[in-house]
Amino acid sequence: MKLFHKIFLCFVIIFGITFQAAGYLLVNFAYQNAVEQQKKLAFQNFQYNKYILQSVLYSEPEFFAQEGDGIAGIAGSFSVPVAVYGIDGKYFFSNLAAQPGELALDKSIGEDDRIAYRIYEKAGESYIFVCDYVRQGEKEMYLITQTEISSTIDAQKSMIAYFQKVYFVLICVSFPVIFVLTKAVTSPIKKVGKAASRIAGGEYSGRISAKGKDEISELAADFNRMAEQVEETVAQLSNVARQKEDFAANFAHELKTPLTSVIGYADMLYQRELPREQVKAAAGYILNEGMRLETLSLKLMDLFVLDKQDFILERMSVQEMFENLRQGMEPVCEKNGAALHMALEEGRIEVDFDLFKTMILNLADNAVKADCKDIWILGEQNRRDYRITIKDNGKGIPPEELGRITEAFYMVDKSRSRRQHGAGLGMALVSKIVEIHRAEMAIESDGKTGTAVSILFHNFTTMTQL
């Protein structure tokens, strides 16, 4: 059974039972009050007629000992129908609608413990009979009075009939109202279900319009946040899967090309007698491709190590680190015709020096390979952060390729990178090192006038703070 049907059925049952119970209690309360009033009237009638009977016994003690129409003539003296019988059960007089033997009166507490009453129905009429012991002088007997309450019983039946009509009308009217309310309650939940079905079918961009501040609106808002998280996670997983596929394909390609050359030239040297110059040229090709394979294996090893090792960062002076690095960078720059410029403000940042050195050397190597004439290394403090920027005036990187520059094996100029023993792993390595240092890297280039790579280290300490 669907939730809509459950809620609708529950509303109908609850409304029906509640209204029926409320109507029953109301009618029963009104009836009980009316009966109580009639009982009071019946007891008042009994007391009044009891005084009349006592007066008769006082004035004529032997009145009920006589026989004939004299006793029957006393009926006119009473205000309501009565019955009189002796202690021994002897019947004296009665003009009741029912004989005393039919009544089986129950005891009830009244003015004394012997008074009793009963509500009795006969031939469509209803009465209250009240009975009590009467004594006057030496005479003892029982008196029963009859008070008609048919109007009260009829009023109760009329109220019940009227309530049933009202109940039927209200049930008929309430059905469409309950239907609309149920639909209003379950409609947002149905939207959530449809959105969940769309997500299950692969449509992750679907959202639910959440209005109001009730629980269902909160559910819709939570669902939208979940859908956003699912969409982001799926996108990340898809990107990771694509990168793994690209990595595997590029890795296979990077291995195939140098291995093919190595095998070809080695086979040529093995199969033929070649002049010295050709042997030297073939050996040069083998050496060149071997160096490229060595570079590839070393950088792959670095990437794997970075993924599996925990590094302890130490606070070190920026200027001291770059003075150490300058000795290894200047010869490489001079060899490639590039001038090295450094302008670094003093500060201390938390680093692993070996990783930091690898990162800076890779960035400088990329700048040199871009045929630049100048390399600038700048360091500036900004509040509690320290930014290191490495700029060059080389060929630059096309803006549309900046988003993929840190992917493994990705190369902007593949032919030039291979000639220089590049494998497209340098920026992937730099990105991983930046992540280990909890820093932020930004790459800017217009593809014409060089590239600027800035790395922001957080929570640095200046020398004056030490």
Structural summary, described in words:
With 466 residues, the chain is an alpha+beta fold. Among the domains are: 3-161, Beta-Lactamase; 310-465, Histidine kinase-like ATPase, C-terminal domain (Heat Shock Protein 90, 2-Layer Sandwich), CATH 3.30.565.10. It is 55% helix and 18% strand. The protein contains ten helices and 13 strands. Strands 2-1-6-5-4-3 form a six-stranded antiparallel β-sheet. The protein has a five-stranded mixed β-sheet with strand order 8-10-11-13-12, covered by helices on one side. A two-stranded antiparallel ribbon has the order 7-9. A hairpin with a 2-residue loop joins strand 10 (374-382) and strand 11. Helix 7 (318-335) packs parallel to helix 8. The longest helix has 57 residues, at 3-59. The protein is rod-shaped. The protein starts with a helix and ends in a 9-residue tail after the last strand.
Overall pLDDT confidence? 79
Q: Can you name the CATH architecture of the domain at 3-161?
A: 2-Layer Sandwich
Helix content: 55-70%
Order of helices and strands: HHEEHEEEEHHHEHEEHEEHHEE
User: Which percent band covers the strand fraction?
Assistant: 15-25%
- Sheet with most strands: 6 strands, antiparallel
Q: Work out the helix count.
A: 10
What's the level 1 CATH class of the domain at 3-161?
Answer: Alpha Beta
- CATH fold descriptor of the domain at 3-161: Beta-Lactamase
End-to-end gap: 72 Å
Rg estimate, integer Å: 54 Å
